[in-house]
TrEMBL record:
Signal peptide positions on this chain: 1-20
Domain Thioredoxin-like fold per the UniProt entry, residue ranges: 25-111
Coiled-coil residues: none
Protein keywords: Signal
Pfam families: Thioredoxin_2 (PF13098)
Organism: Xanthobacter autotrophicus
The protein's name: Thioredoxin family protein
Highest taxon listed in the record's lineage: Bacteria
Positions of transmembrane segments: none
């Protein structure tokens, strides 16, 4: 299990667009699909505490039905094809992405890497 979490972490970091220095995210979009096993696993592992964390306060979670596409006013770097996909959005533009959910450890590591630049930015 440790190996797969590290693999997911490495793949996510490679696919992540570069963050602008001091970028402050406004929300974390979670593209999900009804019946998605990994979405349900995220709901058990992370969702109950997400809003109580510093990351959750800086980038509130907004759920999006994958079949409906991105919400109006959001510019994605590329189409979202898999559920779950987490897209970090700042002022309507994608600044980072996590495709898939393997474990809470991998999720928090990837999200931490994306939000590190938020520390000096807007709340």
């Amino acid at each position: 299990m440790r190996f797969s979490a590290r693999l997911v972490l490495a793949a996510g970091l490679l696919a992540m667009p570069a963050l602008a220095p001091g970028a402050a995210a406004r929300e974390l979009l979670m593209f999900e699909r009804k019946g998605c096993t990994y979405c349900l696993k995220f709901d058990r592992d992370v969702a109950p505490i997400y809003e109580k964390t510093e990351e959750g306060r800086r980038a509130p979670l907004k759920r999006v039905d994958l079949s409906r596409g991105a919400p109006g006013g959001v510019v994605l770097a590329s189409p979202v094809r898999f559920a779950p996909t987490f897209v970090l959005v700042d002022e309507g533009r994608e600044v980072g992405r996590i495709t898939g959910y393997a474990s809470d450890e991998a999720f928090w590591g990837l999200l931490g890497a994306m939000t590190d630049g938020m520390a000096g930015g807007r709340p």
